[in-house]
Amino acid sequence: MRKKKIFLLSFVIISFSILILFTKIFFGQGSKSIGNVILFSKGQNLNDLSVILTDKGLISSQLVFKIGIRIIGGEDKLQAGEYYIKPHESMRSIYKKIVEGDTITYSLTIPEGLTNKQVFSILETNPQLTGDIDELKYAKEGIFLPETYFFKYNETKNAMLKRLAISQEEYLNNYVLPLLSSKENVSSVLKDIGQILILSSLVEEEAKRDDERARIAAVFLNRLKSGMKLESDPTVIYGITLGKRNLNRKLNLKDLKTFTEYNTYLIKGLPPTPISNPGKKSIEAVLNPLSTQELYFVSDGYDGHFFSETYDQHKKNVAKYRETIKLKQLEQF
Description:
Elements: H1 2-27, E1 36-40, H2 46-55, H3 62-72, E2 81-85, H4 91-100, E3 106-109, H5 116-124, E4 148-151, H6 157-180, H7 184-187, H8 193-206, H9 213-226, H10 233-241, H11 253-257, H12 280-287, E5 296-299, E6 305-308, H13 311-331
Antiparallel strand pairs: 1-2, 3-4, 5-6
Helix pairs in contact: 2-3, 8-9, 8-12, 9-12
């Protein structure tokens, strides 16, 4: 009887010690002092996951990890994906993360004013996106909405491009189109969303400051109303590079006199397509232009422009710009 009591007591003590050790290992801090990324793929199971975590040094015991998850009842709830395991993260925390599908989220920013080719380049060089671009490759400029997009592991480049295009379509249909019908000063000149996008892309390329976007839009609209050519340098550059964008030199007189269907020094009205993917600020500037009679603007030599209503004043502003450039060149010596 006494031996039986001793045996039971020993069993209880050993069991309790094992439970304490198990609890410490499963719920306590992990030993890995640096974070790590793991990939738990579809079709893999708990055994595979425990091997992955052990190989990365993120858990100290496969047995404890598997027993713990089976006791909790989460073996069938594991979600595939790419996970970031923090330094010293416990087995319990790792389990919770994978059951909840708390996978890594990546961000992709498409800046305003990029051409389609530049957008493709960003996607093609992104290491987290998979596959090749074989859809929307020949779409017209302006189809993509510049914004920051978030995505998970295994997102394809084609899928991301579709998201950019759908975001633009939704923005135009849900916001721009309803607003255009109430803007008589704009809709009398620009007949549809396509023309809104074209002019917005010119504003995007000309404006260096947000506070000038609506003013530049007004100048372009005033020139269109007056039957004047837009004479926008970025359209000439686009006609030469066809979206590759980097001219790597200054425009010259020959460029301005060389015909392309985008050269607004030679053609009347708008170019046939947008010359970039304009952002919301430029689109909204076109929808809400400044109330002004100005017909001209020229760079002030810094990040802004001089504006004028008459050609005589414009010539004076051009002279001021050239003087500023000369002074800046002298300051370099």
